[in-house]
# Entry
Amino acid sequence: MTRHFLVDDDLTPAEQAEVLELALAMKADPYGYDTFAGPQSVAVLFDKPSTRTRVSFEAGIAELKGHPMIIDAKASQLGRGESIADTARVLDRQVGAIVWRTGDQSRIDEMAAHSTVPVVNALTDQFHPCQLLADLLTIKERFGDVAGRTLTYYGDGANNMAASYLVACATAGMHVRIAAPASLQPAPDVVARAEKIAEEQGVTILITDHAEAAAIGADVLATDTWVSMGQEEGAEERLADLEPFRIDSRILSLAKRDAAVLHCLPAYRGKEVTAEVLDGPQSMIWDEAENRRHAQKAILHWLVTASAPPQESETDDSTPDED
Ligand code: CP
# Structure
């Protein structure tokens, strides 16, 4: 069965832990894996702008001995209305995996439904699971573990990063807090999805509009731009609501003394986070950005390996004896 990575909990807790361990091993030995040797190509399609996702997939696929086939999807026939299903049927005969940054989650679900090779979500309007693998890797490097830690996300609780923090961190056995204005709370179905995982993992989910209380005792404070791609319209009203949810030195002082600060970037200093915090000693943002490459190499390798048909054993004696 072909495995895909479309939403954070497409990996079970054990699988997610395995991918993070693999990412650490790959970071220590960046050229030691021949996943796409040949080279086999990997299609990396973009419907939206990108810096980190593009360069980390392109560099990472090259390190896995593959050929990164970067495609401006809007300039392809997809952009002129060719169906996603037909595009998947064409791509999967050319490449070993498909990576796609697109809009609605239903689009990548459709690509995966028609692809015989693994499909990876490189950001949709609803989730950003590759970013969360990089964030979890950064937390694991910083603290030595992820389970039992508390992460507070500040800002737009209704965006894709908040949704992925909820689902991915619960899967990792972390306590998750979302500090967001009442006007920008996470979707109820995402909260329910995270709560179910959290219950199984014995951790907690908190959705609150109390910015200060949400910081107390947290191991990690994370944020994201207040205006996600495609949400530029009506931004002024959102910004006013978000003002109390900026991570500044006062909020950071309420978290644990050794708390780490994360931001998926691009950052807007003075909006969602002050320059003092973002460029300060507790910020892990450059490790986090580098870890996109290691985490994405790991998920690609893991998916390709997990999707490979089982090898026939040389000693297979399942054929009935002719006697
Ligand atoms: N964090 C992130 O996905 O960055 P890009 O939009 O630059 O890819």
The longest strand covers residues 95-101. DSSP finds twelve helices and nine strands in the chain.
